[in-house]
Fold this protein.
Amino acid sequence: MHTVSLDPWRQEHRFLGRDHARNERRLWLVVGLSAATMLVEIAAGLWFGSMALLADGVHMATHAGALGLSAFAYLLARRLEDHPRLSFGTGKLGDLAAWSSALLLAAAAVWLLVEAIGRFLAPVPIAYDEALVVAVLGLVVNLGCLLLLGGAHDHEHGHEHQHAQEHDHEHGHDRDRRGGARSHAHHDHNFRAAVAHVLADALTSLLAIAALLAGRELGWSALDPAVALLGAAMILHWAYRLLRASGAVLLDASPDPGLEQRIRGRLEQGSDRIADFHLWRLGPGHLGLLVSLVSDRPEPPAVYKARLADLPHLAHVTIEVHRCADRAPA
């Protein structure tokens, strides 16, 4: 009995981003730096009896925890990449971590908002010199974290910019249905979440330094809670954008309306018509496509796949073709 080998026909389900390993290494370095700073601040706060240092150390612990979540998602996605129970691989683990991180960002912003309103209603004395030391230390640490993350972030952005130029040259600056810019179906939302956490922390430190200096030198104590309100509003905005982007991936929303239109245009030729269409994101830079076609003169699925061969990011394509049923006589 002849046994047919299926190996040439099997498709891999490895849909991690191209910079996955690089981003993971840099993120673990940032987690280590944040954790070390946390331990130093908590130890100094307990040793010197400084509530400001102790509070910032606890805040840094939540910051390190959120970054640790992103780093662990990279590790888990890599370790489980070939798990047989995961039908489409682990590409969405990063989006799940990003969505969770966005919730943590939003919770931190709400806490900052409530705390600022409370300070407006019931002002408390501020130890300006001690608080400035803590704020400067926090800013330095976060700038260091941004430097560690910046290389991978710039590398990813460079790839995106290069792809956008090639894409625009071929397709003429396509826009989505709402007239906005092309959707970012290839972004690593987990990495963006980590950068957002560091930026949020750096922003609050920078605003705090400005407010503390103004309060110490000019007596503008009300500026401290005012800048906290501004920081909370900006962090909430980042959290909302990240929740919307990562949530759309988790719900299998169509990631690129412009690409969807081009796919439909290439498949619907002659009597070929699309009866069912699904385009979704499998991971950063990887899209899945499932199409059901009906036609008076159907071709083999390979013919239709060849029409899409040069389109970007299509990593897993399934096409089924049906002959149109004869119409019943009137």
Residues 257-323 form a domain with the Alpha-Beta Plaits fold (CATH 3.30.70).
